[in-house]
Design a protein that fits this description.
Elements (H helix, E strand, L loop, with lengths): L14 E3 H8 L4 H20 L12 E4 L4 E3 L2 H6 L9 H6 L5 H4 L6 H17 L9 H10 L5 H4 L5 H10 L11 H12 L33 H34 L3 E3 L8 H10 L5 E6 L9 E5 L5 E3 L4 E6 L4 E3 L8 H10 L3 E2 L4 E3 L9 E5 L5 E3 L3 E7 L6 E3 L8 H10 L3 E2 L4 E5 L7 E5 L5 E3 L3 E10 L3 E9 L7 E9 L2 E10 L4 E9 L2 E7 L2 E8 L1
Parallel strand pairs: 5-8, 10-14, 11-14, 16-20, 17-20
Antiparallel strand pairs: 1-2, 2-3, 4-7, 6-8, 9-13, 12-14, 15-19, 18-20, 21-24, 22-23, 22-25, 25-26
């Protein structure tokens, strides 16, 4: 106090407010927006720890210094704000776009209400538009309560999934679903920006907003003034008060008349138009309030309108703001070289270049690249693609398999079948079936699939059916052999081929001219051969 006048000393901030920055840029770069939001979280945490709820977080109350530092202001105004101020002043009417659902319902605002409002500010920074708009403040307030905002990434592809999740959590309708403290939100923003953690409890800035005890007047100031002073001072005050009330009444009536009598028009479709042509078309319909948000787009050429809000053919008053999303063109990224890399490493490298791997990944056989390694890509390395576009990858399945003919396994045991299949790099199905057979002994293969002679690739599996018995009955054949009459000795051998295999049943030496008769046992189908001096002399077949 000086000369009996009370005053506050405040920091002078050389810069501009965030609202003007958004209007100038259209869209604040994502990294900068994240850092600004993180700094505001630090200020909010300090305020909340001192039991102060701001209740009027909006870009107009966030100052950006020349050095890029964010400063949160107007704490004093916020402490006086109530739900009744929705329609009292232009300033507070503007704030309805940043109100939390609980504030819109007339409930008491808490720290998480500030977090919601900061979520709206962050949404506006990265998209260039407000999530909720309406013809009246009440209409906007209802949208805060009832509607969900459009996903930020659909308006600005530069918004990452992690940042989008952060924004949508801050904008949760239920306060319990939001970040519980500004410190929690600041920590998540710090992870996105890569900023070092900040101790939110320290108070290094001597100009930071803080709780200040009310300044009490000196005792002498409390003494009543003389009657003459009361009379001489009160009359001018009454006159001025009456004049102010008269001016306010006239201004209110004029404003009401203007609002009621504003003409309506149908919003023309300007999507695909250049920014200049779009402005001209809108202005031709008497729409003067045009806001531009600039966003990259993979398909819409630079300078053309991507979308508009309100949509075409919507009836609006000519004083309403129309927001145009104007394309900055595609954000191009270099396609990296990934041929020869394992598929996991290739995906990491492609994602690092802000591109995606197109689904599905194609698989091919290759004698040059081992299984799981990228053998080709489309487009080739060094090409340019729009940010977020897909790169097609072709991955090796290993060498081209060789075709083999399935051998006959009938009559073999499981071990014998495995040995035959291993030679051809084929596999025996471990789940063999069983069936009764009078032709093959128990444990012998009686049938197979695929059949003998079928062409299959290496690695194919062959399924077999095993005999569970009883197998073929024993039979006996009578074999006669005449030894040549040439005065020489001769060797006689009898060979049996049946379901038990091939075996030399009988071998002996006989004199010239002898006649030999033998009973030879066999099982199932059989071939009995007689050899004299190792030369085939006769053969008999038995079914």
């Amino acid at each position: 106090m000086e000369d009996k006048i009370h005053y506050l000393v405040m920091e002078y901030v050389e810069g501009d407010n965030l609202k003007n920055l958004i209007r100038e840029k259209g869209v604040v770069p994502v990294d900068r927006a994240v850092e600004i939001a993180r700094q505001v979280c630090e200020a909010l945490q300090h305020a909340h720890e001192n039991n102060i709820v701001h209740r009027d977080i909006k870009p107009q109350n966030i100052l950006i210094t020349k050095g890029g530092r964010a400063k949160l202001t107007d704490f004093g105004i916020a402490r006086e704000a109530t739900t009744a101020t929705l329609t009292q002043t232009d300033t507070i009417v503007g704030s309805v776009h940043y109100l939390s659902p609980e504030q819109a319902r007339g409930e008491t605002a808490g720290p998480r209400s500030d977090i919601y409002s900061l979520g709206i500010v962050l949404y506006e920074m990265v998209t260039g538009v407000l999530p909720f708009k309406g013809e009246t403040p009440i209409g906007v307030a209802l949208k805060h309560i009832q509607e969900n905002p459009v996903q930020p990434s659909s308006l600005n592809p530069s918004v990452s999934p992690d940042l989008e999740r952060l924004i949508m959590r801050a904008l949760a309708k239920n306060p319990a679903d939001r970040y519980q403290t500004a410190s929690d939100m600041a920590a998540e923003l710090g992870k996105l920006s890569g900023a070092a953690p900040v101790d939110l409890k320290q108070d290094d800035d001597e100009f930071a907003t803080r709780v200040i005890p009310a300044i009490q007047p000196l005792q002498e100031d409390l003494q009543p003034a003389g009657e003459n002073n009361i009379n001489t001072r009160s009359r001018p005050v009454i006159k001025w008060l009456g004049l102010v009330l008269l001016i306010m009444a006239i201004a209110g009536a004029a404003a009401f008349w203007y609002y009621v009598n504003v003409p309506e028009v149908s919003v023309p479709d300007v999507t695909g138009e250049t920014e200049a042509d779009a402005r001209e078309i809108l202005q031709g319909q008497a729409i003067k309030n045009i806001q531009i948000a600039r966003n990259a787009h993979p398909n819409v050429a630079q300078g053309l309108v991507i979308s508009q809000d309100p949509e075409p053919d919507t009836k609006i008053k000519v004083t309403r703001t129309v927001t145009l999303s104007v394309s900055l063109g595609a954000e191009l990224r270099d396609v990296p070289a990934v041929i020869g890399l394992p598929i996991s490493e290739a995906k990491i490298l492609i994602n690092k270049n802000e591109l995606n791997v197109a689904d599905p990944v194609q698989e091919r056989n290759s004698n040059e690249y081992p299984a799981g390694v990228v053998l080709d890509q489309d487009p080739k390395a060094g090409s340019k693609l729009s940010r977020g576009s897909g790169v097609m990858l072709f991955v090796s399945k290993g060498a081209q398999p060789v075709n083999q003919l399935v051998p006959s396994l009938v009559g073999l045991t499981v071990d014998g079948a495995k040995a035959e299949l291993d030679k051809l790099k084929l596999k025996l199905d471990a789940n063999a079936g069983k069936a009764t057979s009078t032709e093959y002994f128990a444990g012998e293969i009686i049938s197979q699939s695929p059949a003998k002679g079928t062409e299959v690739q290496e690695g194919a599996t062959v399924r077999v059916i095993l005999s569970s018995g009883p197998g073929p009955a024993k039979r006996v054949a009578k074999v006669e052999a005449n030894i040549p009459d040439d005065n020489k000795d001769h060797e006689l051998k009898i060979v049996v081929s049946d379901t038990k295999g091939v075996n030399d049943f009988y071998i002996n030496t006989y004199s010239s001219g002898e006649k030999v008769v033998k009973e030879v046992p066999y099982y199932g189908k059989a071939v009995i051969q007689v050899y004299i001096d190792k030369k085939l002399a006769g053969e008999m077949n038995f079914d």
